[in-house]
Every structure is written in structure tokens, then in C-alpha cells.
Amino acid sequence: MKSMNERLLDFKAAQMAGTYTVCPRCGCDTMKPDLYTNALSRMADIMVCDTCGLDEAKLAFMRAPGTLASWACMQPNRPAADFKATGANEAQAAILKEQLPYLIEVYKKAQKPDTDLDALRLEAYETCAGLTTLWLKPFQASYEVRGGKILVRLQERDGGIAVATNVIPDA
Questions:
Q1: Residues linked to residue 18 through DSSP beta bridges, in sequence order
Q2: What is the DSSP letter of 75?
Q3: Beta bridge partners of 157
Q4: Which terminus of the chain has a smaller tally of CB atoms within 10 A, N or C?
């Protein structure tokens, strides 16, 4: 999996090579063919469309620049598999068997103070098939299944990690 910096470097390399790209910030086909007639991002050393450049200028003026994690080029490449057609019991068993060890590692990393939580979340979305939502503090992973959702919650308890799962039926 590529880090955010690696993704930006790949995108910048494509721009510098003259490869036509969509705007890395909004994902729209709004970049002008001549790369240097577009706007230079205030958040990264990369060109963005004029609309995004103007938006960044306004946000910078308001001292609310946003995060790179919200950029289109930073959105996860999610695995094709999901649990939307799978019953809750079958999906829950698969999640606990196949993904729980990884989720525990993500939980442990999220507890460290110097962890980049946006990058950690991005990595989890690209690793865990069917993961629809992930909150890191408090830790909760959500999966859509046929007829509802499965929630997996992790919490430090008595020197170990407690795991709780719930099936939430659709209303």
C-alpha cells in the first residue's frame, strides 16, 4: 500500500511527465492541458485545477486548510469484495476470522501518539474487504451486510484487547 506521500509523488511524476491527469484534489476533469497554467496547491507541491486553487486560497485565508486525506487522489482503492449480499451471521464469522487480527494491529497503532491516523484509516480501507466506516478513537469498524450492519469495536481492558461485535438490523 502506498503512503500519502508516495501517492503525491506518483501524481506529481505523472504531471511532470506530461501525462494528462484529473485534478488530484477534486478528481474532476478540469485540469488545463498546459500544466503550469493550473494552480499550485498550497498543501502539496502539485498542480490542481483553478477551482481547487481558489478554494485552497479561501481556506488558507480562513486558517482552515483541510487535510490531504480528503483529496480525490487519496481516496482508498477498496477491495472489490464486500458483504452487502451476505447474511449477518456468515459475514460476522468471516470478518472475525479473516480481518480481526489486522483490525487489532490497526487498533494498537492508533493508540500511539505519533501515528498518522488518516494514513492508517486509508490503509485499513484498502486492506479490509467490505469495511465501510472506520473510527479510530473510539475504535469501531462498520460493515454493511444484507439486512443491516455489523459493528466491530475494540477496547483496552485488563491488559488485553476486548472485542465486541453487534449486528444492527436495518430499520
A1: none
A2: S
A3: 160
A4: C
